[in-house]
Each structure stands twice: as C-alpha cells, then as structure tokens.
Amino acid sequence: MKTEEIISLDNQTTIPSLFRFRAQTLKNKVAMREKHLGIWRAFSWDQYYSNSARLGKAMMMLGMESGQTVSILADPCKEWLFFDLAAQCIGCVSCGIYATDSPPQVLHICKDSDTTLLMVENEEQLDKYLAVEEQLPDIHTVVVLDSTGLADLEHPKVVMLEQFYRLGDEADDDLESELNRRIDKAEPNDTAILVYTSGTTGAPKGAMISNRNLIFIAQAFHEFYPITAEDNSVVYLPLCHITERLLSVFLPLARCSAVNFIEGQDTAFENITEVSPTYFLGVPRIWEKMYSSITLRMKDATWFGRKALKTAISIGTRVANYEDKGLAVPVHDHILYRIADFLVLNNIKVLLGLDRVRIGLTGAAPISPDLIGWFRALGVPLYEAFGQTENVAFACGNHRGQVRQSTVGKPPQGVEMKTAEDGELLIKGPLVFKGYYKQTLKTAETIVDGWLHTGDIAKIDADGFIKIVDRKKDIIITSGGKNISPSEIENQLKFSPYITDAVVIGDRRKYLTCLVMIDNETVSQFAQENNIPFSDFKSLCATTEVQTLIKSEIERINLSLARVETLKKFRLIDKQLTVEDEELTASMKLKRNIVNEKYADLIDQMYS
After folding, report:
1. Is pLDDT of 16 > 80?
2. Residue 66 has what DSSP assignment?
3. Could you give the CA distance from residue 342 to residue 346 in angstroms, rounded to a whole number?
C-alpha cells in the first residue's frame, strides 16, 4: 500500500493545530477588521483563537462529538470564522449555508449534512429554520448572533450568542484540556469542512474537504501568488463559497495576513476603496461592474480626459504584454508608463480601491480576455485562475511572468492535469476532495482511478497552458452538427458596458440566438442622455432606442465571430436576475437551465 506524502505547514498537518500555533506565535498581531457603526475595529490572532475556543467549549458542554456537523447560516462576519474554526478544533465538520437560501434549501443542506448544531445570523435566518424545524429533529441547538426583535422569544432549542459564550466560559480546566486533546487528535485525512455545490446541475451535493486538501492548497497557491503577513484582503463573497473560504480563512492562516469584513453588499465598493486591499479576488461580475463604472464616468469626462485615458491604456497594454512574457520593459515604454500612471491610471485605481493590489485574481466563471487586458493595462496585476469546489478552488493559474491570454495558466507542483478522449479536463493530486457526503455512486463517477473528472472541456497547448472551452453539458451542437462554446460568445457580449449577462441559445437549432440582461445603470444613463422616457426596468427594456442599442452591440460582436457563431436574434429579459429567484448562484454565476426554463416563451419567439 502506497504511503501518502506528509504535507505540513510550519510542521502543522491539520487546520486546528495550525490555528492554535498561529495564536500562540502571532498573539496581538491583527488577524481581522470589521466595520461597525462607521468605525473599523481590529481583532488580534489571540482574540480570534480565544473566541473560537469559547465557542468550541460551549459546543462540547452540549455534548458535541467529533465527526458531527455544525452549520452556519449567515452573511460574512467575524463570528462566521469563530464558529468555523471552533467546530474544526473540536473535531466537528463545519458546513456553510448561503444566507440567500430559502427554507427548503436550508432544510436540504441541514438534513443531508446531518447537522446537529446550527448558527443563524438574525431573526430572518432563524425564521427559515423555524419554518422547517419539525423536519430537522437532529438539530439540538440553534445559536443566534443578532437578537434584535427576539427579546420575547422562548424556544427550547434557541440560544443567543451572549448566552452561548457564557456557557463556554463556565467550562472547567478538564474541558480546556479536552479541547487541546481534540486538536492534537485531528488527522490530515479527517473531513474538515463540507462545501455544498452551487446546484447548477441539480440538488447541491456536500463535498468533503480534508485537512490535507487545505494544507496542500494553501501551499500550492503561495507558489504562484506569494502572500505575506503584511497583506490584507476584503471579505465580500459568501463564506460558504469555497473560493472565499480559501482566501479569507485558510490562506490567512497559512500566511498570517489580515482580512477585512465589509458592512454589507450595498457598501462593498465603498469599503473596498477604504481598505485598499493588497490582494483581491473578484468573480467576473465584479470586474465587469468596475469596468462599467469607469466607462460610465468617462462619458461625462472632457474630450481631453477621454483621450488621456485611451492613450494611457495603450501604453499600459504594451507594458503588460512585456511583463506577461517575462521580458524586460524597454526604458522608453517604462518612462511613458510611469508618466501615464502618475497622471491618469493611478487615479482610476484609487477610485476603484485597487491602487495597492499586488495580486488580483478572477475565477469561478468565464471572463472576457479583453477585460483582463484592460485591467492589466491599468496596472492591476489581474490573473485568471481555475478551480472548483472539488479541487478546493485552485487547480491552475496564470501568474507573474507566466501569462498566456485566453488560458487559465498551468498547474502548480504536485498537480497533474490531462484531457480525456472526449476533451474533458482531468485532475490528480492532493487537492482532489474526498468525495460527496453520503453519495458513494456520485463520488465513483467523479473520481476515477484518482483522477477528478471536472465536467469541463479543455485544451492543453504544447507549453502546458490550459484553455477551458466550456462546461461539457453547456456545449451547443447545432442542427447542422457544429460544436459551439456559448461562454466565449457570452464573454464578448458582457464586455459591453450595456450588457450585464447573456445566455446564448442554439442547441439542436438551426442558428444561434441569445437572451440579454441589460446593465441598469449604464442603460439608464443612456436613456436620460437621449431623452428616452421610462418608468422602471421593464419599460426601459421595452423602448425602441434600447432595443436598437443592444442590437448594435450584438452586430458589432458578430463581426468578430465565425458565420456559424453569429447571433441571428435576441430578446431582452425585462427583469433583473437575482440569487433569490434562483437564476444566479451566490457567486453570481448564471444558472443556464433555470433561465432557459423561465424564459422558454422568449426563446420560442426567436425560433417561431
């Protein structure tokens, strides 16, 4: 039997032991900041660990045993991390639930994961549990963070956070010793966290991710994107999403960096500019929104201002091309860039909160190469990486001196990647998850002979750079037998400042069409500038001028497409897609099958 290679970080082989080690060595160093009532408050590593230990001891007072599941239903906050690490330190499995999930979705995850203790953020989230309480008899305790509106609540299973902390404070020395014993007892192959898939292809499945997976991926990530104790990031995506979990929990543990919690989604961009993070991951929709905001501002700029930005971006593009190839930038271009950055580009970066970013990443969904090129010309070192829940968010990536446009880069050391006969990307290495919780057959279909079947069609060039063509299930085969990747066309459409999202249609059809969702902000401004009357989003979509605007954008993009790829017709979706209506995942990925079902009438119109 082959012995697994020991993977450790500072001689620690599990997340609980690494967490304790960080608290012992870093003590008063800032681990996190949270904005509360307009003031940024800092919390040290010692406070991080001591609060988690208090919660862990409270869990043990209630009889929580190793291997049981603790679920967290809340928006990102410091307590999310306290509960996450507390559960892992006492040998339990930590599981996140999206704050946007409906009661039936909460029921599915709690029941499927065998949750026994649930943390909820507030009255709104508690109501979701109460709506399905009778179907969740195994949950013995529900801890509520924010007791606002719940002063008169009397429920045998519900306890407020302050009471729960007090319970942990009542623990004796024996329980303190038991906490340390459980941390010492943790094994590399123990399941540390359960991460439920986004549900774009059916009911969410719980991916079992081990301590070994997490320690390995933290080191592999550092190989490409070195993060130091002086770095900091912003937490804005849901923490139950594996990418945010990696960047905001496990990488800071590995590299001693700090995280900053935003006040809420409404203030995300404002908080980012206040923090000016040094490393920042944005899903494509975030980068698209930033680009659109600058495009919108430039419409109001003077002719000289628009010309200055265009010239500066042109200079930045030349410099970025040299850097992408690992070549020295010619002195002439270097001087021009310094001038352009001082006069123009840095002002844009400050406006976006990206002026200190050393490492910018995009992933979780396809993105337009032109968009990446624009940010790199701006001076933001933006790299595209690739990963899934099943390989702990990171399997390969472009990085400094190793960039190839339209690819997701190469894998780090210890990771093998190849394509199957049908083009599906396969991955092998210590990053491959343990399997799906209680789904042996599904696990056996996904991991074959140690190779993870990603479900993505890919191409690997002679230099080892990987290009993701599309999801295997999303490839369009027209009635004429042509194979087409819809995401490449959709990315070009979304690069338009007037288009937020697009779905290309055409499987088993004679020609391609698309559903388009306009960008409310930029199209509203267009309407105001052109005196086009409208009262709401629906009426805005219905105007002839907006229809003509989007038609011209599509015709412009059609010029760059092969004849078989051109879009013959389109329809505007006259309502904004939301997570709550299940049209988007929590990481803002569009659920293609849901959209196709909901707007079947619009699709049929284009083929009638």
Report:
1. yes
2. T
3. 6
Tokens of 57: 């001891």
Start-to-end CA distance of the chain, whole Å, equals 62
Whole-number Å distance between alpha carbons of 256 and 259: 10
Please report which helix (H) or strand (E) contains residue 194, including its range. Answer: strand 191-196
Q: Distances in Å between the alpha carbon of 523 and those of 333, 396, 416, 534, 546?
A: 37, 36, 45, 11, 7
Vertex 391: Cα angle to 389 and 395 (nearest 5): 120
Helix axes 15-26, 173-185, angle to 10 degrees: 120
How far is residue 43's CA from residue 78's CA, in Å, rounded to a whole number? 9
In the chain, helix, strand, coil percent, each to 5? 45, 20, 35
Show the 3-state SS of 308-357. Answer: HHHHHHHHHHHHHHHHHCCCCCCHHHHHHHHHHHHHHHHHHHHHHCCCCC
Measured distance CA(369)–CA(547) in Å, rounded: 26
Bridge partners, residue 399, by sequence: 402
Looking at residue 165, its pLDDT comes to 96
Handedness of CA 271, 272, 278, 279 (dihedral sign): positive
Residue-wise over 552-569: b if at least 16 C-beta within 10 A, else e?
ebbeebbeeeeeebbbee
The strand order across the sheet containing 30-36 reads 39-44, 30-36, 258-261, 232-235
Rounded-to-integer distance, Cα 337 and Cα 329, Å: 10
- 3-state SS class at 185: helix
Query: Rounded mean pLDDT of 519-537?
Result: 89
CA distance linking residue 467 with residue 369, whole number of Å: 12
Cβ(385)–Cβ(409) under 8 Å?
yes
What's the CA gap between 351 and 575, in Å, rounded? 30
Chain segment 471-509, per-residue pLDDT in tens: 888 778 877 777 788 888 888 888 888 998 888 988 888
Dihedral over Cα of 146, 248, 111, 60: its sign = negative
Lowest model confidence (mean pLDDT) among 59-68, 226-235, 566-575: 566-575
Residue 117 CA to residue 66 CA, distance in Å, equals 13
- Parallel, antiparallel, or unpaired for β 476-477 and 483-484? antiparallel
If we measure between CA atoms, which residue out of 2, 159, 180, 157 comes closest to residue 91?
180
DSSP state of 403: -
In sequence order, which residues have a C-beta less than 8 Å from that of residue 341 and are 6 or more positions away? Answer: 312, 316, 379
pLDDT for residue 1 is more than 60:
no
pLDDT in tens, 210-251: 999 999 999 999 999 999 999 999 998 889 989 999 999 999
